[in-house]
């Protein structure tokens, strides 16, 4: 879902999900369902310049470097971030549009006269 063009995909309220689409989306939401991964994604997406070295993220957590790398791998597999090795270090960035497509999926049309 995340890697697809947003124009091809209906939102949550547009139509019931088929089994394949539900499975794809579940992987993405599962990746976002962990507090460490959610914080990592936030650190990456909010970074000025658009990319962050793993060496800058690891100290923010009370976790080993391999554990942080594992969480980053799961975010990559979910299609939310990508990375590039430069010498000893790996640099991460959020994939353009990935979060926008998730937001569009979760957005429901506002109905006149209905208030939350």
TrEMBL record:
Gene: arsR
HTH arsR-type domain residues: 17-114
NCBIfam families per UniProt: HTH_metalloreg (NF033788)
Protein known as: Transcriptional regulator
Alphabetical UniProt keywords: DNA-binding, Transcription, Transcription regulation
CDD domains according to UniProt: HTH_ARSR
Molecular function terms, GO-annotated: DNA binding; DNA-binding transcription factor activity
Keyword Protein transport: no
SUPFAM superfamilies reported for this sequence: Winged helix' DNA-binding domain
SMART domains in alphabetical order: HTH_ARSR
InterPro entries per UniProt: ArsR-like_HTH, HTH_ArsR_DNA-bd_dom, HTH_MetalResp_TranReg, WH-like_DNA-bd_sf, WH_DNA-bd_sf
């Amino acid at each position: 879902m995340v890697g697809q063009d947003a124009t091809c995909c209906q939102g949550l309220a547009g139509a019931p999900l088929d089994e394949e689409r539900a499975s794809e989306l579940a992987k993405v939401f599962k990746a976002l369902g962990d507090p460490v991964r959610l914080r990592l994604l936030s650190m990456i997406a909010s970074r000025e310049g658009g990319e962050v070295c793993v060496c800058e993220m690891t100290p923010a957590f009370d976790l080993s470097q391999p554990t942080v790398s594992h969480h980053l791998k799961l975010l990559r597999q979910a299609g939310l971030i990508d990375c590039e090795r430069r010498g000893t270090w790996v640099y991460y960035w959020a994939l353009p549009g990935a979060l926008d497509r998730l937001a569009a999926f979760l957005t429901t049309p506002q109905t006149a006269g209905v208030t939350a």
